[in-house]
From TrEMBL:
Entry binding sites for Mg(2+) 5: 241
One GO MF term attached to the UniProt entry: ATP binding
An individual GO BP term: thiamine diphosphate biosynthetic process
Pathway(s) where this gene product acts: Cofactor biosynthesis; thiamine diphosphate biosynthesis; thiamine diphosphate from thiamine phosphate: step 1/1
Protein name as it appears in the record: Thiamine-monophosphate kinase
Remarks, miscellaneous: Reaction mechanism of ThiL seems to utilize a direct, inline transfer of the gamma-phosphate of ATP to TMP rather than a phosphorylated enzyme intermediate.
Residues noted as binding Mg(2+) 3 in the record, renumbered to the chain: 42, 87, 238
Family to which this protein belongs: Belongs to the thiamine-monophosphate kinase family.
Binding site for substrate: 65, 291, 343
PANTHER family recorded: THIAMINE-MONOPHOSPHATE KINASE
Lineage start: Bacteria, Pseudomonadati, Bacteroidota, Flavobacteriia, Flavobacteriales
């Protein structure tokens, strides 16, 4: 679907592993104070002084997590970094370094991997993280990317999934379901393209949702905003698998129940119109779609005045005693038990 206009193809076997690593990493510069030694030795050296170190890893596998027929490699590199930084921000920490490991087959020329790394570099620059290492190996099948993100947080500032208390407010940032609907559009256009390769897709009405799928952002801005507002959430998680499964994680780990109001779930107008077009329920999409990389957190009611007027935040419910259970209160005012669907990674 997305044509490779780059005609130059340098085969990986011609340049070898070390040549490849040099090519891919030559632009990376170190800017974090905590990065003592970056790429180029047997290991990186980091120094966080008194701060706590936060570490998180994710693995992205071609055919499972991404489809290169509509995912440009540059976007994939960007997204691989975002997915990981999002986990660091969900701890109320600041991301400082990443390592990037790839397994690639010979079907990728050097130029394709340079595209991938251009996305890695852009994301690292925008979010101010240093790429301090990684590993490179061959793969007999698809492309595999693993990113490890490292961050720092002052002792006591960290926010876990387990701190929600009855009467806390449940808050979500941004809007939900767009990345999933963007994927539906891309999948549909891929099918159209298979039938007629001359048919160029008109993505104009879907720019926001397609961008949310192909170029997600992680919410570093929210972590900084909460600090400015002097709000420390009681619990927090990032929304990678879908709102309902993240709510269940917070409730389970905090040992609490909650009510979530269907009419409070933030949806972009493009999500609503695309759901109508596909005849899908927009609440189902927001609850189960995933890949939004927004933050879901709980705050004490005392902090409500600090966030109430802020357009970044939607208060979608409140925490209850564990015996109350976990429910969605629908627009028709019925209470239905919340179930997780999330990304069903292990289903056929
Ligand atoms: P080793 O044999 O010790 O694993 P490598 O030759 O694989 O060392 O790596 C050399 C240096 O390049 C190390 O600093 C490593 O972290 C870095 N590096 C290797 N592959 C990548 C990659 N794909 N992205 C970023 N850095 C990498
Ligand atoms: Mg290595």
């Amino acid at each position: 679907m997305i044509e490779d206009k780059n005609q130059q193809r340098t085969s990986l076997s011609d340049i070898g592993e070390f040549g490849l690593i040099d090519q891919l990493t030559k632009n990376f510069k170190i800017s974090q104070k905590s990065s003592v030694k970056g790429i180029g030795d047997d290991a990186a050296i980091l120094n966080f002084d008194q701060k706590q170190v936060v570490v998180s890893t994710d693995l992205l596998v071609e055919g499972v997590h991404f489809d290169l027929s509509y995912m440009p490699l540059k976007h994939l590199g960007y997204k691989a970094i975002m997915v990981n930084l999002s986990d660091i921000y969900a701890m109320n920490a600041m991301a400082t370094q990443v390592t990037v490991s790839i397994a690639v087959s010979n079907r990728f020329p050097l130029e394709a991997l340079e595209e991938l790394y251009a996305g890695v570099e852009t994301a690292s620059q925008i979010y101010n993280v240093d790429v301090v290492g990684g590993d490179t190996t061959s793969s007999t099948s698809g492309l595999i990317i693993s990113v490890t993100a490292i961050g720092e947080v002052e002792k006591g500032d960290e926010v876990l999934r387990s701190g929600a208390k009855p009467n806390d407010l449940l808050v979500v940032t941004g809007d939900l379901g767009a990345a999933y609907m963007g994927l539906q559009i891309l999948e549909r256009e891929k099918e159209v393209f298979k039938v007629n390769p001359n048919n160029q897709p008109d993505l104009e009405p879907y720019t926001y949702i397609v961008e949310r799928q192909l170029k997600p952002e992680s919410r570093k801005d929210i972590v900084m905003l909460l600090k400015d507002l002097e709000v420390k959430p009681t619990s927090m998680i990032d929304i990678s698998d879908g709102l309902s499964s993240e709510i269940l994680h917070i409730c389970k780990q905090s040992g609490v129940g909650c009510d979530v109001y269907e009419n409070k779930i933030p949806l972009d107008p493009q999500v609503i119109s695309t759901c109508e077009e596909f005849n899908i329920d927009s609440t189902t999409v927001a609850l189960n779609g995933g890949e939004d990389y927004e933050l879901l957190f709980t705050i004490s009611q005392d902090d409500y005045p600090k966030i109430k007027a802020n357009p970044n935040f939607s208060i979608i419910g409140h925490i209850k005693e564990p015996s109350a259970g976990i429910h969605l209160v629908t627009r028709a005012d019925t209470r239905i038990p919340m179930k997780a669907q999330g990304w069903k990674s292990f289903e056929d």
